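Job type: complex structure
Entries:
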Amino acid sequence: MAKNKQLSEIVNDLDERAKELRCLYKVENILNNNELKVEELFLALINVIPSGWQYPHLCQVKIIIRDMTIKSENYEESKIIITKNISVRGKVIGEIAVSYTAHPYDYDREAFLSEESNLLKTIADRIGHYVLHHDLNLIFKKFQNVSLPEVQENAGEWKIILDMLRKTDPILFMSILRKLLHNLVLRGSEEAEILMSQSSISIKAGDERVHVDENRPLKKKIINNYDEYINAILKLTSENFEKDEILLRIQKWMQEEKSIPLVRILEARESTLAEISDAIRKYYHLAPEKFELSPSIIKGLRVSLVRRFFTEDLNYIGIAKEFVKLTDFYKLIDKMIYQPTSQGKLGGKSSGVFIASNILEKRAEDVEILRNIKIPKTWFVASDCVLSFMRYNNLEEVLEQKYKELNELRLEYPLLVQLFKNSEFPPEIEKGLAAALDDFGDTPLIVRSSSLLEDQMGASFSGKYKSLFLANQGSKEDRLDALKDAVAEVYASTFAPDPIEYRAERGLLDFHEEMGVMIQEVVGNKIGKYYFPSYAGVAFSNNEFRWSTRIKREDGLVRIVPGLGTRAVDRVGDDYPILLAPGQPDLSVNMTLEDSLKYSPKRMDVINLESNEFETISIDKMVKEYAENYPGLKQIISIVDQHRVRQPNVMDDIASSDYVVTFDGLVKNTRFVKKMNEILKTLQDSLTTPVDIEFASDGKDFYILQCRPQSKGSDLAPDTIPTNIPDDKVIFSANKHISNGKVPEITHIVYVDPVKYGEIPDIENMKKVGRAVGKLNTLLPRKKFILMGPGRWGSRGDIKLGVNVTYSDISNSAVLLEIAKKKGNYVPDLSFGTHFFQDLVEASIRYIPLYPDDKGIKFNEEFLTSSKNIFEELIPDYKKLAEVIKVIDVPNSTKGKILKIMVNADNNEALAFISEPGADLVITDHVADNKSDHWKWRLTMVENLASRIDGDKFGIKEMYVFGSTFEGTAGPGSDIDLVFHVDQNEFKKDEFSWWVTGWSDALSEMNYIRTGYKSNGLLDIHYVNDEDIKKKNSYAVYIKSGAYKSKKLKMMSEFK
Amino acid sequence: MSSSKSFNPFAMAQAQFDKVAEILGLDEGTKEILRNPLREFSFSIPVKMDDGTTKVFRGFRVQHNDARGPSKGGIRFHPQETVDTVRALAMWMTWKCAVVNIPLGGGKGGVICDPHNLSMKEQEQICRGWARQMAKNVGPLNDVPAPDVMTNAQHMLWMLDEFEVISGGKYPGFITGKPVGMGGSLGRTEATGYGVIYTVREALKEMGIKPEDTTASVQGFGNVAQYAIRLYNELGGKVVAVSSWDNKDQKSYSFIKKEGVNIDELLKITDRFGGIDKVKAKDLGYSVEDGNAWIQQEVDILIPAALENQVNAETVTLIKDTVKIVAEGANGPTTPDADKVLIEKGIFVIPDFLANAGGVTCSYFEQVQSNMNYYWEKEEVLEKLDQKMTSAYLAVSELARKKNIFMRDAAYMISIQRVAEACKDRGWV
């Protein structure tokens, strides 16, 4: 029973709210009805207002405005009454009262609900707005009449306007008068100057003229006779200005006045997002952009808004103010989530996409192809909400997390994530998230970080913080929980070890980082149990991976995949996005069927709506099951038909055909390329910098998801090429077809001498060069060596043209260089790595073509040929090739220095020179890779381990360390290679394994704490016995192998 | 080292020929005509590029010898084509056609260009330009081009179309490598892999071994390997190991199942490049081992059907004593060093240009069908392929047995002898 009662109460409450809303709606309708006269309008109001109250039959209304009073029929005074003031510009001009003719209850209970009081307040405010609007309209009408040519003769028209104003809006009137006076002074009117010095109507002290000789404060000289004063100004005005001019000015000032509250709030540093939103709402209501503001005021407003919502960055503001409309902010504020006291911003990613969409929208007015480019529906959580969130949960001490030791951070981070996920959100934020979900419905979402640093640093910071996909399925409660979970996780990522380490390395630790969050609808369609876009990808204004000399850098680059764009944004290594140069769409990377088959996407990322998970599935599976439902699939794939690739036709049953992803249809049958070109060009021109954008399509519409300057990309920024390197330190220079791309510090050079290679008399030995390079690829430190060779690496046809290698033979190199050495008059063509082009791209292996015979080019053959060649030591089996292949250990040949390669595509320049190591920050696959002490730590640890091994007890004769620990190239995730020489009769394998596995696990744990790399035991252990050594079986080569391959470790007995 | 010593593919091909010619005791005139191409064409192909400029490309055609029939050979698009390479390849085609005893000579051609720098439209212009320049000197009765490095069926169709416009008729036999329905032949996918097994079957027959009593190990799991395994299984043989390249790990693995691999089961977990999913393979009970494990199996037959140089000085020592036959499905899988060891061990080698001649034989069938404008069913193609391969094999093995020479030498001798005789019969020499 009790439950039922509660329920009926709730229903009753809801009914009341609905009634109120309906009432408000009616009120709004009446106020917006332009056809009603003022009296009619208020009468109408009086009739509808009772419907919003609990007891309409008892209800009566009275409205007093200025000298007008309107009452309900048979109005009788009552004590059961609520009254609210009606004000215009802060001044009370009347009131509205609702009263009951009799008390509705027999018992002692408030007659009116608090909601009813609020309702009345709202109605009073709306009436106030209406009156103001009405007054202004009147004034306008006057103006319009005045500006008509036929009434121009009448000299006093503008005075009438001012008279009107004086009566209806004295504050505005005085403000206009003041401006008139200023203008008169500027005109040089002496009388005006006198008036000015005497006046007190300047409200702010700053407006007063201060006599320089007086130190004491000026006394305000009050003119008692206002009329006289005003008349004086008006007289002067009519004497000094043309009638039209006065009118024009007054008109402008009146309009500007309307924006003042907004300007004031925006200027005030302490104003909150809530206040700003409110001011925007009011302003928009009052004066949508149809009222022409002066360009300077508009710009001022735009600048202030951009600054408050997005960034202080002057470049950004400078561009944004040209494109962003005030209405855009009006749309934005409805999709913002913030605390009442919030003063935060929306963060880096949000700013990028906001400005891009505005630029494209504006340019679309003139450029047809830019029309209908969409931005997915997005909600924004203000950046300082993360602070409120932490305050709300007493998590403030986490803020100091960033100053902790990295290993401590790493240990604590998983706990921190849990802590954040188990914390409550402040009610306002939670409400905001719930409202956002109502708006989104059950469309899958992506929750993206949009931090202040991402804004500062551009792309180089992207990917450091979390972006999470949400399937957003199930009950509202479940969906809200999942969303809160995701936001909490994004929040926690502010304190993740990797970004903090990254910040520390760049001196950004003290930057006040705040984390805004973007909640974005995932573009796509529901197909079966999956949700994904038909295609998505990234596009760059500058192409840094050109596969043909005909492709210019400005031709751009698009990486595109079916499904979610994650696989185009990231490099996954064993799968390939389709590459396209929008400026040269006909020059494709893949020329043969084999290339098309190999270098094409095989898997796609999707959201599984059933399991609520982000998944990678095979495209095959998708096509076999859903070929018919996949929008635009025919533009994405091509049919492989008897060694040919062709676009699908009506007759094709795609599900049962042999096909390959090519995007040929999209390129050839649609305007995709043209559109992409135009987007990149437009954004680059407007933002005055090359850009990279993320895009997606649901098969119908084209969406832009992100936009940022390309120059801020982590590894594609141009290097500054030093000019002061002495010639003897330069190894080579280049000035043709240079692409940007950071090259790590190089410790080894593999140089295949073009002349010597050309002289090899037989094909067998030529092939051996390829195999030797393949061996070097496994022996030399990963991403620390470069391969320099003649002509075309990986030449498939004529082996004379270049070393016969496959991708696996060069996969660990940092840079591939092709040397085009003149033969007679003829400079050979280079391959540009086309034989494994996409493998190079995905593995971040850089490519540089060298033309040593060109004018002004340096090529230090002396260094390459006369430095100590360690080839023979590395691969004694191939020692005959030592003439052809030089391997230079740079630190060994240069007293500890390294080879530095700087590239700058902007100037088309590259320079390689001998330099001190570590002078510059180097970006490789993983930030932590730069730590040079991984091997040292490992070596110390195994030396320690060795000293505790009782060889006699276990039957171990000796032990060696080899591989990356020995070579000093160990990365954070490397294991430690050990080989034990055991006595086959005495060796107690089980016992020893048990003992050493403990060490292995312990070291793995320690390494995790140091670096964040997890492994299943850190030691990679091999055993060999005397017979293996005799036969030189497998790992036996590392026993007593001499200085180059391994190091013997002292065991316990040797310490005695 | 002087540059005269530097590697020259044509000089190498000539040297190889000289060696065999010496054994065959060919006279000077015959040697001279076979050492060099009969005809060489070199010409310009002007092309209006997409950007409005004109570029002139260099085209080639070498007809090495057509004593036994129209020249046959591919057209290569290669940025640094040299005439010596084309000459060497044309000569190789002459021997290859002769060894399977099909009535065709050898040729090769190409254009110096890098397709990576060309749009499809520009490539079409190059193809049509080539056909225009060569129309008088090629044709179903003179010289029959085919796809090669960086060219495919599409290029062939453009050339064919241009040729037919010029000739004023339909001549599908002008070119091979066409799609089925546009003058192509059925059975081409199976041809090479089946061809390998036809020769293996004959070799086993000669050794008096029943195929069902044998086991084999195959390197590679591409098209050739897959069809070879299929036919070998049909004959009753059991493949216990295949190796396949893992693109993710950038290395190969061997997949071993002692009770015999199941080709259909493996194909389900194989990508289109012949990469077998090693995790799924383990689930299916395969033991996944090192890439070299395939060669170390105790089997009767090894079929290297992947890359060149796979049986080399290092790996040849790993071959078990049980192995009786090495059938070369790939091109040049065995190095000369390894050949010596194979001879010492008494292992019977079916050399590549005999074992994998199924492909060129099927091209010949395409031309035959095109010329009569009547196309066979797949069974008929494969049946005729079996006959050709079988008789080609028997001829080579008979010679090897009679003269007690290595199969590879015998194959060369028989093919050069056939061409030499044709020249003589025609009264050229």
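Summary: Chain A has six domains: 19-138, 159-252, 368-527, 534-712, 727-924, 931-1055. Residues 114-147 of chain A form the longest helix (34 residues).
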